[in-house]
Every structure is written in C-alpha cells, then in structure tokens.
C-alpha cells in the first residue's frame, strides 16, 4: 500500500472543497435573489437575506466539519501530521478555480473548527496565500464601456437602457437631465468635451437595502474619477436614477465599514476586487472583499496585513487613547488603523450586562443594517503576538483587567478572544481641539447618527460622546454596543409632573422607573457637560429630547416600514428615505 492510498489526505481535501462549493452555491442563490427583491420592493426580505448570507458561512463550515467527522475516524482526521498532505492535495484541487483565494480561507475555517487554534501553522493551512496576487489583468473585467464623444446625455441614456429592471424608470427624462447636470458640475469642462472620455461600469449592479448601485469609473487618457450611480426603487412610482457620484471620498463612504454588505454577482471575486481597488486605491482589499459579503476572506487579508505590519515595523501595541471602557479594554497599534477590543473580566458597577450579552450585542450589530453609523467588527479567537510587540504598560493593563482573555506563553501573548474594528477619533477627544465650525458639524452629525440609527430600529443605550468616533471623512459613527437594543423594545416616557414641592427637591425620582424606561428630557444633562455644546445641540437636534419623536418612529417601524439611510448626499430628503 502506498502512502497516498494509506492516508486519506486527498479524500479530506475533496470533502472540504465540496463543502465550499455548497457554501458558494447558497451564497450565489441568496445574492442572485437581490435583483428580484429590488424589483419587487421586498425590503423585509432584503434585510433577512443579508442576515442569512452572513450566517451562512458558519453554518456551512459546521456542516462540513460534521461531515468530515462522520466520514473519518477521529484519530485519523485529527492527526496533525496528515494535514500538510491535505493542504497540498487541496492546492491541486483549487488551482483552476476562479475563487481560489476564497477557497483557501474556507479551508482555514474548516481546519480551525476541527482543531484548536494552538495548531495553526503555515504547514497545515494557508496563513500565507499560495495564490498569485490580484489577477485583475488576466481577463478583461466584466464591464460595459461608453464613449460619449462630447455627448454626455446620449451616453447616460444608453446606460439607463442597458441597466433595466422589471420596473420602469419613473421619470427617465428628468433623471437624465439631472444626472448630466451633476456630471457637468463635478467634472472640469474640458473633460466633458474630451473625445476620448470613457465611462466604464461593472456589468452587474450592486444591490443593498433599497438601492441598486452602478459602479465604475470615468476616465480620460490622463485622469480618472470613480463613479457610482445609485438607482432607487420608489414604491408605486418606479426606478429613479438618483445621482452621479464622482467624488472619491463620497464613493469611499458608500463602500464604508459602517454599511451592510453589497449583493453582487461576481464570477471572479479577485478580479472584481481588483477593479474596485483601481477605483478606490485608498481602500485595503480586506475591506473591499468584506464590502461584497466575503467578510471571512476580508478577515484573512486583514490578518495577513497585520502580521506583515508587525514583522516589518517597530510598531507596538498601546492602550487606545480616550476614556477607558467599563466593559471593554481597547488597544491599538499607532501605525495600523485598527483597534482591538477585548471583554474585561469584571465590569464597572454601573454595568448590568454580562459577558454573553456583550458578545450577543456585538454579533447583533454584525447582522443588522449598520446604516453608515455603526462600525463593523471582526471577531477573532486565539491571536498570538510576540510579547516584544507590546508596550509594557499596555500588556500589564490587559493582563490585569482581562486575565481570562490575555495570557503569556513564553515570549508570546495569547489573546483568546477579541474584536477588531476601524480606529476613529473618539468624539469627546475630537471636540476638545475642534474649531467652532468643526464642533458645529460634528454635533450635527452626531445627532443625525442617533436619528438614523433610530430609524433603523437601533437605540444605542449609552449615547455619551465617548461612545462615538469621528472617521477620516468626518463622519460620526457609534462603536459601543454593550447597551444597544432595538428601538421598539424601549419605553420612551415623559417625566411625570412632581406631586409635591418636595418631589422636585428629592435626589431620587418620585416616579417608578422600569429597566427599559428612557426619559429623553434627561438627555441634555447626561450628554453635555459643556453648556455651549448643550445649547448648540438643542438648536440642532432638540427634537431628540421629546418622547413623542421616538414614539412616532417606533410606530412606523412597528407597522413594518423599512427605512433606508442614504450613503451619499442628496438634493432632496437628505436624512433618510422618508417613512412612506
Ligand atoms: N473604534 C474605535 N476607535 C478609537 N477608539 C476607540 C474605538 N472603540 C473604542 N475606542 C476607545 O476605547 C474606549 C472604550 O471603548 P468602548 O466604548 O467600546 O468600551 P465600553 O467598555 O463598552 O465603554 P463604556 O464604559 O462606555 O460602556 C472608548 O471610549 C474609546 O476611547
């Protein structure tokens, strides 16, 4: 008997890949349904599909591991010596695939679900990829090109003809006029007239919430601009081509880590990500994979970038600047745009949540529409970093507040569980050194964030300034999830009038307060110590102090309305898709 026959490496590799095919097939089915959901305006189903597609990965990894366990004897399957052979058999199987890089991540997930994370090594799995780097040049990407030759209107008209849906455009002529005007306003005149000007759009639209987005670029011989054209389905009216977005920052915000993942039919993910990267060079490919639903692969790419950063720089972990959390301990690398969040062993007295609830709330945020106002997180188990990569004070603090999560193993620090999240400037710190105009803008956006979260049925619970961050694009985003709840679970109340004069003097409330009760009238005092900021916020968003404001939103949500928050500036109805 030869070694190859004796060892079941090839069979295991095949089973892992069959599991991947099954996952990909289901992923495709959910994704392909996006067009019809958009055309039928099935917004509840759209939200369910998004959550289902996120959950799909773990479900299918679980099924694949179960199948492996059922097929092979445990001592055979869990013989770590075997796995380098499994890996090489797997490489042979994936070489010709169009999604080979994703299949490596899949293999890693299955490996980690079978083994404890202690056995992670490049010999047994794909810590480093064996794939060539992005191969966008190998085949022409699946795009459509338009050459206006000075006639922008005609090119836009051809675009709307090519991207058609079961539902007609509501006001095609009006849309074309507006889009052309927007384009002429945002691009220099000579560009609009350039006979070589080309508009290139990815052939499939990207669907998310109530929108379909055409994504591509506009370029001349020397210059290029990203281009996003959001198409909205206005129920009862039809499709509206809403805008031409060519500003790189605005396009970047559309692909933000604070949004749900797009549904888009891509045959070759690396190619599509390569195309996006050419439009948005500032975005890391980890984020781009994540933005189209391949968040596990995004995690792999993130991890590779992280170990590469640690290996090639002297950067060391420090505690994140700002007020220390009562529940979470947060650390960061100054040169790497990410925070690492771990759950403390003991919470401050003011907190009533427990560890499992915290985990549940973070997972909830991953599954809901984050409406551009909550940061996405990636959950990691068993990170290992060299001890020398920690500033001693940082390591001492982590060991003190979370000894069950952080442990020293010789020269290595083991982090048993953590979330990573984009680093922002905590809003309280931002305001300390902001100009008057910046304070105005940040407080306006802070109130807008609270309103948009509420419209998406999220109540942050703890709305203090320190729980929000400011992104590099100046957007205010919420990041402290341990007290969030669905808006519809909160009981908004008006403070009852005092019965006697003594009531008013009393330090204790004269009325009973249930755990879910919230009194919006109290917000100004809670949120702002600075009187100037308190007054300003009152002018900008005073309606948030009124229980009736919140109850109206609750009623709309309870009646089944799904509210979309636009990821870009609009001329009409800036805030949210109105509650129709
Ligand atoms: N994404 C981030 N970017 C920058 N700093 C962050 C980020 N997330 C958290 N921090 C910093 O870490 C601190 C604690 O984080 P977080 O608010 O998530 O913890 P917490 O324990 O839930 O807080 P709280 O005590 O308000 O409940 C924040 O106040 C902020 O200073």
UniProtKB/TrEMBL annotation:
Presence of the UniProt keyword Hydrolase in the record: yes
Provide an example Pfam family for this protein.
AceK_kinase
For this UniProt entry, what is the primary localization, expressed as one broad class?
Answer: cytoplasm
Write down the superkingdom of origin: Bacteria
Task: Name all Isocitrate dehydrogenase kinase/phosphatase (AceK) regulatory domain ranges.
Answer: 13-313
Write the Enzyme Commission number(s) for this entry: 2.7.11.5, 3.1.3.-
Single GO term (MF): ATP binding
Which cellular components does GO assign to this protein? cytoplasm
| Active-site residues, Swiss-Prot/TrEMBL | 376
Keyword list (alphabetical) reads:
ATP-binding, Cytoplasm, Glyoxylate bypass, Hydrolase, Kinase, Nucleotide-binding, Protein phosphatase, Serine/threonine-protein kinase, Transferase, Tricarboxylic acid cycle
Location of the protein in the cell: Cytoplasm
GO biological process: any one?
glyoxylate cycle
HAMAP family, sorted: AceK (MF_00747)
The free-text function statement in the UniProt record for this protein reads: Bifunctional enzyme which can phosphorylate or dephosphorylate isocitrate dehydrogenase (IDH) on a specific serine residue. This is a regulatory mechanism which enables bacteria to bypass the Krebs cycle via the glyoxylate shunt in response to the source of carbon. When bacteria are grown on glucose, IDH is fully active and unphosphorylated, but when grown on acetate or ethanol, the activity of IDH declines drastically concomitant with its phosphorylation.
Name this polypeptide is given: Isocitrate dehydrogenase kinase/phosphatase
Name the gene for this chain: aceK
């Amino acid at each position: 008997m030869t070694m190859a026959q004796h060892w079941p490496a090839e069979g295991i590799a095949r089973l892992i890949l069959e599991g991947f095919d099954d996952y990909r097939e289901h992923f495709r089915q959910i994704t392909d349904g996006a067009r019809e959901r958009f055309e039928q305006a099935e917004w509840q189903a759209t939200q369910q599909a998004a959550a289902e597609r996120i959950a799909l990965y773990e479900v299918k990894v679980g099924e694949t591991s179960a199948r492996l366990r059922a097929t092979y004897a445990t001592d055979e399957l869990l013989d770590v010596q075997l796995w380098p052979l499994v890996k090489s058999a797997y490489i042979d199987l994936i070489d010709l695939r169009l999604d080979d890089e994703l299949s490596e991540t899949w293999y890693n997930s299955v490996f980690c679900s079978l083994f404890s994370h202690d056995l992670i090594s490049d010999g047994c799995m794909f810590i480093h990829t064996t794939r060539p780097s992005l191969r966008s040049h190998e085949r022409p990407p699946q795009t459509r090109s338009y050459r206006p030759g000075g006639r922008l209107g005609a090119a836009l008209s051809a675009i709307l003809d090519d991207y058609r849906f079961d539902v007609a455009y509501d006001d095609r002529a009006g849309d074309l006029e507006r889009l052309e005007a927007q384009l002429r306003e945002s691009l220099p005149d000579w560009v609009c007239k350039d006979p070589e000007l080309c508009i290139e759009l990815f052939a499939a639209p990207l669907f998310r919430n109530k929108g379909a987005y055409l994504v591509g670029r506009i370029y001349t011989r020397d210059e290029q601009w990203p281009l996003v054209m959001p198409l909205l389905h206005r129920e009862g009216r039809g499709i509206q081509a809403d805008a031409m977005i060519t500003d790189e920052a605005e396009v970047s915000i559309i692909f933000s880590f604070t949004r749900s993942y797009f549904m888009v039919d891509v045959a070759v993910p690396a190619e599509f990500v390569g195309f996006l990267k050419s439009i948005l060079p500032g975005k890391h490919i980890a984020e781009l994979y994540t933005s189209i639903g391949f968040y596990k692969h995004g995690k792999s790419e993130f991890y590779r970038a992280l170990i590469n950063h640690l290996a090639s720089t002297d950067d060391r972990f420090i505690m994140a600047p700002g007020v220390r959390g009562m529940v979470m301990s947060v650390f960061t690398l100054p040169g790497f745009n990410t925070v690492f969040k771990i759950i403390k062993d003991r919470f401050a007295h003011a907190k009533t949540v427990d560890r499992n609830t915290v985990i549940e709330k973070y997972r909830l945020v991953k599954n809901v529409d984050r409406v551009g106002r909550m940061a996405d997180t990636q959950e990691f188990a068993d990170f290992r970093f060299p001890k020398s990569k920690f500033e001693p004070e940082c390591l001492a603090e982590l060991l003190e507040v979370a000894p069950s999560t952080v442990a020293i193993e010789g020269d290595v620090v083991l982090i048993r569980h953590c979330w990573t999240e984009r680093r922002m400037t905590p809003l309280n710190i931002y305001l300390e050194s902001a100009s008057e105009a910046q304070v105005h803008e940040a407080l306006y956006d802070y109130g807008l964030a609270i309103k948009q979260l509420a419209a998406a049925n999220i109540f942050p619970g703890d709305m203090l300034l320190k729980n929000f961050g400011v992104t590099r694009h100046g957007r205010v985003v919420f990041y402290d999830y341990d007290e969030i709840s669905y808006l519809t679970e909160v009981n908004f109340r008006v403070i009852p009038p005092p019965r006697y004069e003594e009531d008013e003097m009393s330090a204790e409330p004269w009325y009973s307060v249930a755990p879910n009760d919230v009194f919006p009238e109290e917000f100004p005092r809670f949120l702002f110590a600075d009187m100037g900021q308190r007054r300003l916020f009152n002018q900008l968003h005073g309606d948030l102090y009124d229980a009736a404001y919140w109850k109206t939103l609750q009623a709309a949500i309870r009646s089944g309305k799904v509210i979309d928050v636009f990821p870009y500036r609009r001329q009409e109805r800036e805030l949210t898709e109105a509650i129709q």
